Amino acid sequence: MSIASSPGNNGNGGPPASGRSAASAGAETVLVTGFPSYVAKRMVRKVVAADAEVRVVMLARDKFQAAAQEFIAGLPPDLGARVEIALGDICDMDLGLAGADYRKLVDRVTAIHHLAAIYHHGVPRDQTRRVNVEGTKNVLEMAGDCGQLTRLCHYSTASVSGDRKGVITEDELDENQGFHNAYEETKFLAERLVRGRLGKLPITIFRPGIIVGDSQSGEIDKFDGPYYLMVLIVTSPLDVHLPLPGKGSAPLSVVPVDFVVDAAHALWRTPEATGKTYHLTDPAPLAARTIYEVIAARAHKKAPRGSIPSGIARALLRTPGLAKMARAPLAFLDAFNHMAFYNCRNTLEDLRATGIHCPSFERYVDNLIGYVREVHAQRKQKLDAEVFDPFD
Question: Domain 3-213+253-280 belongs to what topology?
Answer without folding.
Answer: Rossmann fold (3.40.50)
